[in-house]
Structure formats: C-alpha cells, structure tokens
Amino acid sequence: METELSLPRTRVGSDRVFAWACFAGTWLALVATGASAQVYDAVVYVDSAQLIVDGTPPPDDYGFRGALTALIYLPTAVATKVGLSGDVGVLLQNSALLAALGSFLLPSLLAAAGARSRARTVACCVLVLVVLGRFAPPGLMDIWALAAALGAVLLLARPDRWRVAAAGALLGTAINLRPAYLIPTLVVLIAWAIWVRRHSLLLAVGSLAFLLPQMILELLRPGSLQQWWTGVLTVNEIQLAYSAWVVRYDTMPAAYPPQQFFCMPGMAAAQDGQIGSPVGLLSHLLASLPTSIDLMAQKTTAWLMWTWSTPYYDAAEPAISQLGVMVAILVVLGAYGWVQAARRGELSRSLIVVVAALALGVLAGVVTSTPEARFAMPLVVLGMVGVLLVRFDRMGWRSLGAVAAIVVVVVLLGRHGLSHPAPAGFVSPEICASPTTTKG
Q1: How does DSSP assign 273-329, residue by residue?
Q2: Burial bucket for residue 396 (CB in 10 Å: 0-12, 13-18, 19+)
Q3: 0.90 exceeded by the pTM?
Q4: What range does the domain containing 25 cover?
Q5: Pair (98, 244) in one structural domain
Q6: What pLDDT, in 10s, does the model give residues 136-180?
Q7: Residues 130 and 251 placed together within one structural domain of the fold
Q8: pLDDT tens digits for range 4-44
Q9: Among 7, 101, 102, 138, which is most exposed with the fewest C-beta within 10 angstroms?
Q10: How many whole angstroms from its chain centre is CA 73?
C-alpha cells in the first residue's frame, strides 16, 4: 500500500521519467534537422578541440577566445577518431545541450518560481525547438555560455554559501566562453551586493573563475595570457569603434565578404574621430542627442528581429520574419510575466534581483558593442520562462493592450533599424553615412 510519505517520491520519479522522455524527443527532433558545415568562428572552436585530441599545440592566433572554448567540443573530437563526422558530432552534442535546456534547466527555473508542470515542460521543449533549433548545427559558444549563465541564475534562486560560490564560477565560465557576458556579470555582482548581500564576496571571487583556465594555459604555454588579454582589448576597441553608428552586425556564410553591417546614417555622419573608450562613447552619445536615443532604440530592438537563418544571416530573407515577431512577443510578454510573478509574491528576492540584473546587463552591453542577433539569446530565453509565468486570467484588457502595443513598437523599430544595410564587408563612417541599399 502507498503511504503519504511514498506518494511524493512516486510523483517525483514519474516527473523525472517524463522529463527524460521530453529530453529524448527534443534531442531526436533537433538531430533530425541535419548537420551543416562549420564556418568561421565555429571552425576555430571545433578544430581547436581536434588539435587537443591530436596532441597538437593550439594555433598562435587564438586571440581573444577563452581557453575553455577549446574544450567544449572535445567529445566530438574524440568521436571523430572512430569515424564520426565532426559536423554530425557537433549536431549531436549541441542538440543534447538544447534538449537539456528545454527538459531540465528551464523547467527548474519555473519550479523556482513555483510554476513547474508537465505542460510547461513540454512548452519549454517546443520553444527550444522552434526558437533555438538553428543553434544546434553550428559549433558556436552561445548556447554553452547561456547554459552556464542560466545555471548561475538557478543556483542563486536559493542561495547558500556553496550555491553562491558555484554560481560565481558558472558566471565566470560564461565570460570565458563568451566575453559578452562580462557586463551582465558585473551588473549581477553589483545588484547582488546591494539588494541581497548574502555571500557577495564569494560570488565575486567565484566569477573570477574565467581567469583560471587562462592561468593554467599560461603555465603550459607562456605568453598566452597576455595574448588573450590583448585580443580581448582589441575586440573591445573594434566594438566601441562601431557601436556609435552601427545598429547590428551579422555573418552571411553564403556570401563573400561575409560581414553584413546595418547602419544609422545620421550617427555615422556625426562621427568625428575614433572612439577609444566607454567614456568617449558616452560623451559622443550625449553630444549627439536626441539622435543617439534613436540609435539605442534601434539597437535594442533590431537584434530581436531573428530570422530562420539565425544565428547567421541570409540577405534573401525578409527583414521581418515570423520568428522575429515571435521573439519580440517572447521578450515583451515574458518581461510582463516576470513582473506579474514578482507582484504575486511567487519569486524569491534573490531570484528577482539576479533575473533583472542579468537582463539589464545584457541590454547595457548593447550600448558598448555592435550586437549580433544571437547576442540577444539571454533575453529571449528569459522571455520563454516569463511567458510561461503569465497568468492570463489576471492580466486584464488594459495590460494585454499595452503588451500588444509594445510588441508592435519593438517590431517597427527593429525593422527601421535594419532598413540601412551597408555593402557586404567591413565598413567606415563614410560608407555607413550613405548606404547604397535599403532592405525591404
């Protein structure tokens, strides 16, 4: 006979079986989309893992890429030794991570908000398939860094000493994999120290984990730490130089040159000299008011205009796709869902702080960078969770109308931000001040 004590265990066991079934189904669906050839950065990441397996020293031009990026695809590199195609190995490995994201990590975030259910688990898997499915074939770092950052969010939802330290290490891992997480991590650290204050030093020390792999590599290969830091600074300088007049950047695998920049001609025409620091950028933006406000509005909406080619870009696709509208809805309605759940008292203080700080940090990163569409992934995935927190029965027509209006504004602003593509290749303010084409 089943007792009251055994019933919860039975239910937990059943839920785990269900989650694993969702994982298997999602993984198979992602694998069925097929592998694709690696290009550009993806080639570097996959080949670096292969070099480690082959016992070959890493290339001298690894530059700004963190040491951990060479370890991510080690399973794929090992599998190639028994005849598996590297492209297929990347697909299998990335699909497993995305399936775990939909079946375990996102439902766990919902559970932290008191909203876990089997229906929501299925919804998470479907959203991962539809929205993130095209991240399975390429060997990029985006989904791996995202998983580390979301893992940190989950740990900080119920903070104790070890969870906070582990969360810091995961944030540091995200930075090493994708330096774009540096600003979001700094915002999380500051917000945590001000509004939560529990083990703040541990969180900060843990986040320095992004330096540990570089120090280990320095012992194995003297000079690599300086090379890495120089590369990071160089990329940062390039990002700053473009950030004052470029709305978005994308990579076109099927074109040569593959660089596609979307410009704001007014800000490009106002560019006077090289911007070499965040202070210089801020000064330039303030001097360019109110045009710079329009630039920020375009940048924070244009990167949400995903297409069915994201994380890459295909010039043949329309500027506004069904996926772009869906992403805009997820981000806007998802933000409403998080706010609604916080007002209902269903979220812990620590979870509210870390989710808000991560989202604001990602947005802050737009100011000092030239964002690609894939850089918006943290906002999109937080939006997925937020949408599943919405209580539509408590929403009201006024709130629904406001959300719909904001979505329309986001889509129109995003479309406007993509209306001035520059000729393919690297650009200058002079080129961006008078783009030769306008995308319809």
Answers
A1: S---SHHHHHHHHHHTTTHHHHHHHHHHHHTT---TTTTS--TTS-SS-HHHHHHHH
A2: exposed
A3: yes
A4: 1-139
A5: no
A6: 999 999 999 999 999 999 999 999 999 999 999 999 999 999 989
A7: no
A8: 344 466 666 788 899 999 999 999 999 999 989 999 889 99
A9: 7
A10: 19
Alpha-carbon span 93 to 87, nearest angstrom: 10
Same domain, 238 and 364: yes
How many other CB atoms are found less than 10 A from the CB of residue 217? 21
Q: Which of 108, 139, 170 is the last residue of a domain?
A: 139
* Domain edge (last residue) among 139, 169, 195: 139
Residues in Cβ contact with 281 at an 8 Å cutoff, skipping those fewer than 6 apart: 240, 243, 244, 275, 367, 368
In the predicted structure, residue 255 carries a pLDDT above the cut 60: yes
Q: Which residue carries 């120089």 as its tokens?
A: 230
Domain count, the chain: 2
Q: Which residues contact 195 (CB under 8 A, 6 or more apart)?
A: 349, 353
Among 261, 243, 250, 187, residue whose Cα is nearest residue 366: 243
Residues 6+ apart with CB under 8 A from 34: 91, 137
Residue 263: φ, ψ to 5°: -105, 160
**Residue 298 domain flag:** yes
In the block, tokens 């265990």 appear at 9
User: Distance from first CA to last CA of the chain, Å, rounded?
Assistant: 68
